[in-house]
Design a protein that fits this description.
- The protein is mostly helical.
- It has helices spanning 4-19, 24-51, 53-67, 81-97, 99-110, 116-154, 166-183, 186-195, 201-206, 208-222, 227-262.
- It starts with a helix and ends with a helix.
């Protein structure tokens, strides 16, 4: 329940946002400044990550190495792979580690144009989206990778020795990690749709069958052509959709109450 003082402060803030109109070129300069700071953060993180690239790669490769039989190891099929792969790993790692800072720069760019009520929900959504993305990556590494690699190795034909290329493995791990990280953003996407008035919780609930089919379709597109990783992506995505619906109903009720207070 907002007090009269809080309502006045909110109205003053919103009025100031409406009255302040910066030239287009000023917005472009501000956006450029935010992009430059983001690139600087990525470059600064790239250097220490590259220094420990070999150790980091061993950590990333641990699920596959644990699944390989006997003394089997990974290989490099290209001449420059031992040099190029650590560079790619450092670039991907720097981007992933810098993601909170990059999103903060994005928030700092759009926040001055938001109403106070929008800021109240926007900042928690920003923080939760970062945490959910990292949670999806950790879930893929700890849960999905061990099961998937065990499955891949077990279905190899007799007499075939599984020896994975280091560059191909890195691309596989990065793409699957981003797929799971993005799938864990589903609750945030649902909250944004409801908050913006694009959809309602009831309308989204009625589309549940289509959402389930879409989750499995996304699993087929974003993961390798095997049932293990496809189901492992589709089922959590569906459950996250249900979690998003529960949160969206609460946000929808609160938004309706605030509109009644304004009236």
């Amino acid at each position: 329940m907002m007090t009269t003082k809080s309502l006045k402060r909110e109205r003053d803030h919103d009025q100031a946002v409406d009255e302040h109109s910066a030239p287009f070129i000023e917005h472009v300069r501000e956006l450029r400044r935010r992009i430059i700071w983001s690139l600087i953060a990525i470059v600064l993180l790239f250097v220490p990550i590259y220094y420990f690239a070999n150790e980091i790669y061993l950590i990333i490769a641990a699920p596959l190495i644990a699944a390989l039989p006997g003394e089997t190891s990974m290989i490099a099929t290209r001449v420059a792979a031992p040099f190029i792969t650590p560079l790619k790993l450092s670039a991907y790692g720097a981007l992933m580690v810098a993601m909170p800072f990059i999103l903060h720069q994005l928030w700092s760019f759009i926040a001055p144009g938001l109403y106070l009520r929008e800021k109240r929900i926007g900042l928690p959504l920003l923080v939760s989206s970062i945490l959910l993305f990292y949670l999806g990556v950790v879930f893929a590494y700890l849960v999905i990778f061990p099961v998937a690699f065990q499955f891949f190795v077990s279905v190899a034909p007799p007499g075939i020795q599984v020896m994975t290329d280091i560059s191909s493995y890195l691309e596989f791990v990065v793409s699957l990690s981003f797929a799971f990280g993005l799938s864990f953003e589903i609750p945030v996407a649902i909250l944004l749709l409801v908050w913006a008035g694009i959809a309602s919780p009831e309308g989204l609930a009625r589309k549940r069958p289509y959402v389930v089919i879409g989750c499995f379709a996304a699993g087929m597109v974003l993961t390798p052509p095997d049932p293990v990783t496809q189901i492992a992506l589709a089922v959590p995505a569906w459950l996250l959709f249900e979690v998003g619906l529960v949160c969206a109903r609460a946000v929808h009720r609160r938004k309706a109450q605030e509109q009644e207070q304004d009236d």
